Amino acid sequence: MTVIEVDGLHKRYGERVAVDDVSFDVAAGEIFGILGPNGAGKTTTVECVEGLRRPDRGTVRVLGLDPRADAAKLRPRVGVQLQESRLPDRLKVWEALDLYSSFYPRPVDWRALLDDWGLADRRDAPFGKLSGGQKQRLFVALALIGDPEIVLLDELTTGLDPQARRDTWELVERIRDAGVTVVLVTHFMEEAERLCDRLMVVGAGRVVAVDTPEGLIARAALAPRVRFRCVRPFDERLLRDLPEVTAVRVRGSHVEVAGGGDLLHAVTSALAGNQVTVADLRTEQPTLDDAYVALVGGRENVS
Predict the structure, then answer these.
(1) Cα–Cα distance between 72 and 93 in angstroms, integer?
(2) Single residue among 185, 219, 253 that ends a domain in this structure
(3) 143: closest CA among 210, 185, 190, 96?
(4) In the chain, which residue ranges form alpha helices assigned H by DSSP?
C-alpha cells in the first residue's frame, strides 16, 4: 500500500528553484531514503510532505490526505523530527515527553519510551545537559509519542560521532520493525546503504534516480577495482594493455586499476610476470558512494 504520493512538486524561493517537478511514492512499512548533497532540495521536499510549506504547484497526499488542508486529521498519524530541532535547555527529559504527549488524543506511554530509547537514566536531566546522541534519542521519542503510522527523520545523525550514529541507526531499524513507515533524509552514503529499502537521489532540486541501493549501484554501471601500492615505479602499459583493464590511475605509490572479467587474475599475473613487487593489494566492488558520485557529480546545488 502506498502511504505517500508526491506528483510534480515544485517550490521556488524568489529566483531560486528549490524543488523542480519532483515525483515519488513511499510504500507502507519501508524505510525510504532521500539522498543528496546539501542544498539539493531534500528538506524543502520533506517540509512540503509534512505540510510545513505550501508547494507552488504539484500534489502531495499522505495517507490519502492533503498535508495542509487536512493537517488536523493527519498530525496525530505522522511523527516528525526536524533537521534543526531544539528544546529549552532547562526543560527536563520527562517534562518534554509529558508535554508532547498532551498534544495527541491517544499518545503512547512516555514512560515506556524512556526505557525503549535508553533515556530512563536521564529522566530528570535538562535538555542542555544531554549528549548529542541522547538528544537525538529524545527527538525520536518525541516523534513517536503520538503512535504515528509514518515518521519523517531529517538529517537525524548529522553531528554525531561514529558510535552514536550507529546506535541511532539501530533505533531507526527498530521503528521500521514496529511497523512504522520511515522517510529518512540523509547525505551519508553508509547510512543510506545500511538502512534504506529504496532511495530517491536528488540533485539541484530534481530527481536523479529512485531505486534500491543495489539497483542504484547497478544502474551506474561502474567497474570493479584492484588497488595496490607499488614498491618501485613500473611501466603502466603493463596494465593498460590488458583486455580486462579499462583504466589505470597512479597517485604516487598508490595504483588503482578498473576493469571487468577476471580483473584480479589478469593484474596479478601481469605484475608477477614482469617481477613488479606490490603491497596492500585488494579488490573493491562499486559502492553506493561510487554510484552517487556517478549519478549526481557535477550537478549544481541551487537551494
Answers:
(1) 26
(2) 219
(3) 96
(4) 42-50, 71-74, 93-101, 110-116, 132-144, 162-177, 189-195, 213-219, 237-240, 263-273, 288-296
221, 226, 252: which is closest to 239 by C-alpha? 226
Q: Using CB atoms within 10 A of its CB, is residue 255 exposed (0-12), middle (13-18) or buried (19+)?
A: buried
Do residues 247 and 206 both lie within one domain? no
Indicate whether 179 and 257 sit together in one domain.
Answer: no
Average pLDDT over residues 72-91: 88
Number of domains in the chain: 2
- 166 lies in the same domain as 114: yes
Do residues 34 and 186 make contact, with C-beta atoms less than 8 angstroms apart? yes
Work out the pLDDT band at 122, boundaries 50, 70, 90. very high
Q: Taking Cα atoms as reference points, which of 115, 192, 183 lies closest to residue 148?
A: 183
Name the nearest CA neighbour of 234 among 248, 215, 218, 219: 248
My answer on whether 240 and 210 are in the same domain is: no
Integer angstrom CA distances of residue 139 from 83, 117, 120, 147, 211: 11, 10, 15, 14, 29
Give CA 90 to chain center in angstroms. Answer: 31
Q: Which candidate, 25, 145, 135, 24, places its Cα nearest to that of 78?
A: 145
- Classified as helix, coil or strand, 15 is coil
**CA 20 from centroid of its chain's CA atoms:** 20
Beta bridge partners of 219: none
Contact 144, 106 (CB under 8 A): no
pLDDT digits (tens, 9 = 90+) for 135-180: 888 988 999 999 999 999 988 887 778 888 888 898 889 889 989 9
Q: What is the pTM of this model?
A: 0.82
Q: What is the DSSP letter of 300?
A: P
Judgement on whether residues 121 and 161 belong to the same structural domain of the protein: yes
Tell me how crowded residue 276 is: count the other CB atoms within 10 A of its CB.
19
SS3 294: helix
